[in-house]
Design a protein that fits this description.
By secondary structure, this protein is mostly helical.
């Protein structure tokens, strides 16, 4: 998510943001597989946050500037990070 948020610069293209989104999705898929049933409730929260994140990135029109969508995308990325943090805290217990 940090790399994704770092992509949100005025000079970024929609393609760069979509590529960063794909990296998040791969990391997310790996996390869900690894977490399995260890913290199902937290995994479900991460899934929901990730789905909203992907939908927000997909909703950015190809002709939009990054600055037009940056605040919303940052918020969605922060929501995913929060859900991931909660999951990591529960798994450590």
């Amino acid at each position: 998510m940090t790399n994704f948020k770092d992509t949100l610069k005025p000079s970024s293209t929609v393609e760069q943001i979509q590529s960063a989104r794909d990296q998040v999705r791969t990391a997310y898929d790996n996390l869900v597989t690894a977490a399995a049933d260890a913290a199902k409730g937290r995994v479900d929260a991460v899934k929901a946050a990730e789905e909203k994140f992907v939908a927000a990135v997909n909703a950015v029109p190809n002709d939009a500037t990054v600055s037009q969508a940056a605040n919303s995308l940052r918020d969605e990325a922060a929501n995913v990070q929060g859900a991931l943090s909660d999951l990591m805290n529960e798994v450590k217990c």
